[in-house]
Amino acid sequence: MGKGQSKIKNGGTGKTKTSKGKKNKDENSNNNSLTNSPNTSTGNLSVATTASTTTTVTSEQQTAQNKSQQELNANNNGNNSNPSTNNTTPANTSTGNLSAQTTEQQSNINNIDNLLNSNGATEASTSPDSLGIGNGDDNEDEGPEEIIFSKNKQSATKDDFELLTVIGKGSFGKVMQVKKKGEDKIFAMKVLRKDAIIARKQVNHTKSEKTILQSISHPFIVNLHYAFQTKDKLYMVLDFVNGGELFFHLKREGRFSEPRVKIYAAEIVSALDHLHRQDIVYRDLKPENILLDSEGHICITDFGLSKKIETNDGTFTFCGTPEYLAPEVLNGHGHGCAVDWWSLGTLLYEMLTGLPPFYSQNVSMMYQKILNGELKIPTYISPEAKSLLEGLLTREVDKRLGSKGGAEVKKHPWFKNIDWEKLDRKEVEVHFKPKVKSGTDISQIDPLFTQERPMDSLVETSALGDAMGKDNNFEGFTYVADSILKD
């Protein structure tokens, strides 16, 4: 699966954006060329786990490290020598300069800054699905644990899997490459500590992530195969996707060619359309949460911020990654699936140019730019791609491309040569194939993780304390995919 897509809330949940790979986005960026090291992340999940953590709003310090040098080099990146990169053309989506910011918007920005600087574990700023151990218990010996089954009694247990390699870590647990005993198929096992989840009030988010994953099946979305639990931990067994994070490849290459971006974009559009048709909003689209499989197709991971919208009013939770937040989220308005189309526009802009459209090292300034800044699109981007970006990065939700459904995005002229049925069968030729020898290759995973001894460490009985209460907070967590039952 992919490296650690990590996000955190400042001082509360465990994963911070700086602890993942994004902080390294500026390293060696004078020539926008990295060494052959597959992943420079030092913190969370490795480049190979779809079980990566979700990003929540991060602090200014965390974001400032992300792209500082890239901001200086965004228009003459790596393998792109187009002399026109420094020329930009204003788009039509600007709503005015920063001085025109309303009092309400400034108040919201101030509230967000206060939230980022608080130490409490709040829903708005915590990562619902953080991984990794974080408590130094990796050296404890394994031991027997009671297995808790859901009512249907159909379950795998941790003893059914051989632990192969650590591929990611965060504050709630870790991710390991595993093999089902007696079979050849490789999976990624996401292991979460209940005490950490309960202490940070992420029970509902964690259960929601599992519920959403088990309800969807799509060629460009990670599959959940098993879920089970012991008295101390939760386990989710997912696809092992080993081509590396899109973030890693983008960081190494600076920016991608437009034909290559178009294929990635089309596969993402197909996946988002599938989610939205089920009233599921993803809310954390970014390069860190998109993995490449061994053939070069994308795989969306990390559903910790996803939510099924039950009402027409949308949802009001303030969550996401700063660079990709939609204006309606910053304004504190109820939001729905349209936020994913804004994030897609931001992601496409970043893939085409090297930086998000409204990026600033100063998080407050970046929020102001998202709300009011002028969208400038380099002249080397084709008119069709420019039109798509302008449509997706429209601040008025009702006028935003995609607000009426994914079908209108698919019909955009930029995608006119895409055969969507062929695309979903993975029959469309990709422009880049990761250098992996097989589906089990771990060469794209940070050695920081893979050098660790793979083990499922014990949690002291006292660690849970009274947190569990009299009831099982995770009743019904056990799951076996239909595809597994049919085998």
From TrEMBL:
Q: Has UniProt tagged this entry with the keyword Phosphoprotein?
A: yes
Keywords linked to the UniProt accession:
ATP-binding, Chemotaxis, Kinase, Nucleotide-binding, Phosphoprotein, Serine/threonine-protein kinase, Transferase
Where in the sequence does UniProt note compositional bias of the Low complexity kind? 29-65, 73-97, 105-119
Q: Name one GO biological process term.
A: positive regulation of macropinocytosis
Region described as Disordered: spans on this chain: 1-144
Q: Does the keyword Transport apply?
A: no
Pfam families the UniProt entry points to: Pkinase, Pkinase_C
- GO CC annotations, alphabetized: cytoplasm; nucleus; plasma membrane
A molecular function annotated in GO for this UniProt entry is:
cAMP-dependent protein kinase activity
EC numbers, comma separated:
2.7.11.1
Which SUPFAM superfamilies does the entry link to?
Protein kinase-like (PK-like) (SSF56112)
- What's the catalysed reaction? L-seryl-[protein] + ATP = O-phospho-L-seryl-[protein] + ADP + H(+); L-threonyl-[protein] + ATP = O-phospho-L-threonyl-[protein] + ADP + H(+)
Bias-annotated ranges (Polar residues):
120-129
Q: Residues in domain Protein kinase?
A: 161-415
The protein depicted here goes by the name non-specific serine/threonine protein kinase
Write down the species.
Answer: Dictyostelium purpureum
Q: What phylogenetic lineage does the species belong to?
A: Eukaryota, Amoebozoa, Evosea, Eumycetozoa, Dictyostelia
